[in-house]
Every structure is written in structure tokens, then in C-alpha cells.
């Protein structure tokens, strides 16, 4: 796989991900020339290197703005910004509720928002993404995020928050492009798929994704280490969204 040739096509808008390209690209992505750079990004990210490289590549393709829910201290944001830097200017908006996570074994944070800012600065991306402080399922927080889009549609949405896919999309769905790239973390742990106790979010995320697939609202392209789902929304997503949201709320809240 010539990743550089594909990247050039993604950046120029000549090439788009589908299931076959995502499988071929993602299956060989550790040989990508940017793998060493993403290994550095991994020091501030809970995600796998394969997923960081795929986020970078998706950000190169994205037509429109990029929104992520749950950047923590900025690893995923930095991977996305590497993809933007290698393609063309795109608005990037990150939504995180913030707080502290002192118990994390390798990346503790006493102030998630402050560490997000510091890590973006250290990576050379200060001011290149807007941080909306609050919950993805909060109307006011999303109003701030949508204002930062300045009328642009969302061409890529990444959710890595609390496992509630549709609830974190509720105030963004009307702003998604019809062919929006979607990335949803925590559908499984590919290394230990039979141990749902590994992560309490797996069950709910997997069920929400299954609902979206059976409603024809999303297309599955691939799942990459540790267990991040990559795909795309379909033109049906908006019309079936109220049912998906209601089912998720009934099931889990
Ligand atoms: C698993 S971490 C994200 C990891 C990150 N993407 C990375 O690259 O390391 C989840 C993050 O989501 C945030 N979070 C949890 N629920 C949220 C919600 N509903 N809305 C916004 N942020 C949320 C947490 O504060 C935390 O920073």
C-alpha cells in the first residue's frame, strides 16, 4: 500500500474512504511514514497508534469542519490536526467536559482543559482548534461548538466520550454533511473482545452502533486497535435519528 499516494489523493479530494480502502489502509497503517510521529502523539492519547493514524487520514479526507467529543488531554486532537496540516485548512472543534483524572495510570490530569491547551501548544498547534467546554449532550455547549463552525457543515465527527453515541450527537446531527465521516470509540477491545468488563462503555456503544447499522444510518468501514469504529453516515441518518436517540435513552438512562 502506497500510503503517501493515498494521502495525496485524500488531500486533493480525488480519493475517499470506503470499506475496502479503510481495510487496506488501516490494515497496513503501522508502515505509514507518519507512524513514528503518531507514536509520539500516543504519549498523550489513550487511543491506539493505528487509530491515531486513521484519525489523521480521515482528517485529510474530511470535507467540511471536524468535530470531536472527548479529546481528554488532546492526543486525538493532535492526530486530527496533523491530518489537517497535511491537507488544507479545516475548522476543528473539540468538546470536553473537563475536570480531573488523577487515577489514570500513565496520563493523569489535574485539569483536562489546561492540559489539552498545553499539549496542543507543545505540538505546535496552539490556536488551531476551538475547545468547547462542557458535555456533548448539553445544548449550550453544542451551541458554542456550532458557533465556532461559522456556518460550515461537519465533514468528520469523532465521539470518544461516555459511550452514548446518539446522545452526544443530538445537537450536532443537523450540522452533519450527508456523507460525514464518523469515528466512534469503545465498540470493543480487539485484543480481549470477550471481556466486556474491560470497559463499561463497550456494551452501550456497540448496541448504539448496531442500531445505526440496522437502520441504514451509518456504514461500517473497519475497527482498529484498540477498538475504534470507523465508518460514514448515510443520507438516512438525519431522518432516523430521533428513533436511534429514543432507543438509546430508553435503554441506558
Ligand atoms: C476516553 S477519554 C478520551 C481520550 C482521547 N480521545 C485521547 O485521544 O486520549 C474521554 C474524554 O471524554 C470526556 N467526556 C466524557 N463524557 C463526555 C461528554 N458527554 N461530553 C464531553 N466530554 C465528555 C472526558 O472528560 C474525557 O476527557
Outline of the structure:
The protein is of the alpha/beta class and 253 residues long.
Characterization of the model:
The protein is of the alpha/beta class. The protein has a single domain (3-252), classed as Vaccinia Virus protein VP39 (Rossmann fold), CATH 3.40.50. 40% of the residues lie in helices and 17% in strands. The protein has nine helices and seven strands. It has helices at residues 3-12, 19-27, 35-41, 49-61, 75-85, 112-122, 139-149, 202-214, 237-252, and strands spanning 65-69, 92-96, 130-133, 154-159, 176-184, 218-224, 228-233. Strands 3-2-1-4-5-7-6 form a seven-stranded mixed beta sheet, with helices on both faces. Helix 6 (112-122) links the parallel strand 2 (92-96) and strand 3 (130-133). The radius of gyration is 17 Å and the shape is globular. The model has no long low-confidence stretch (mean pLDDT 95). The structure holds S-adenosylmethionine (SAM). The site of S-adenosylmethionine has 21 residues, from helix 5 and strand 2.
Q: Secondary structure elements and their pairing?
A:
Elements (H helix, E strand, L loop, with lengths): L2 H10 L6 H9 L7 H7 L7 H13 L3 E5 L5 H11 L6 E5 L15 H11 L7 E4 L5 H11 L4 E6 L16 E9 L17 H13 L3 E7 L3 E6 L3 H16 L1
Parallel strand pairs: 1-2, 1-4, 2-3, 4-5
Antiparallel strand pairs: 5-7, 6-7
This protein binds S-adenosylmethionine (SAM).
The site of S-adenosylmethionine has 21 residues, from helix 5 and strand 2.
Amino acid at each position: 500500500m502506497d500510503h503517501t499516494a493515498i494521502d495525496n489523493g485524500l488531500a486533493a479530494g480525488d480519493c475517499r474512504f470506503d470499506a475496502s480502502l479503510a481495510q487496506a489502509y488501516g490494515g497496513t497503517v503501522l508502515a505509514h511514514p507518519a507512524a513514528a510521529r503518531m507514536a509520539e502523539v500516543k504519549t498523550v492519547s489513550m487511543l491506539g497508534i493505528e487509530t491515531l493514524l486513521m484519525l489523521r487520514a480521515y482528517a485529510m479526507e474530511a470535507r467540511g469542519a471536524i468535530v470531536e467529543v472527548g479529546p481528554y488531554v488532546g492526543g486525538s486532537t493532535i492526530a486530527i490536526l496533523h491530518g489537517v496540516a497535511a491537507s488544507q485548512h479545516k475548522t476543528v472543534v473539540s468538546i470536553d467536559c473537563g475536570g480531573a483524572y488523577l487515577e489514570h495510570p500513565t496520563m493523569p490530569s489535574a485539569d483536562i482543559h489546561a492540559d489539552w491547551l498545553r499539549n496542543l501548544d507543545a505540538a505546535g498547534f496552539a490556536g488551531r482548534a476551538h475547545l468547547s467546554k462542557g458535555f456533548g449532550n448539553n445544548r449550550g455547549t453544542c451551541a458554542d461548538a456550532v458557533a465556532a463552525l461559522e456556518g460550515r457543515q461537519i465533514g468528520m465527527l469523532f465521539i470518544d466520550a461516555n459511550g452514548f453515541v446518539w446522545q452526544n450527537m443530538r445537537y450536532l446531527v443537523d450540522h452533519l454533511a450527508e456523507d460525514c465521516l464518523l469515528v466512534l470509540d469503545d465498540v470493543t477491545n480487539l485484543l480481549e473482545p470477550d471481556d466486556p468488563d474491560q470497559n463499561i462503555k463497550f456494551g452501550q456503544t456497540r448496541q448504539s452502533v448496531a442500531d445505526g447499522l440496522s437502520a441504514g444510518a451509518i456504514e461500517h468501514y473497519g475497527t482498529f486497535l484498540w477498538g475504534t469504529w470507523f465508518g460514514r453516515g448515510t443520507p438516512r441518518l438525519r431522518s432516523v435519528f430521533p428513533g436511534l436517540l429514543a432507543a438509546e435513552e430508553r435503554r441506558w438512562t
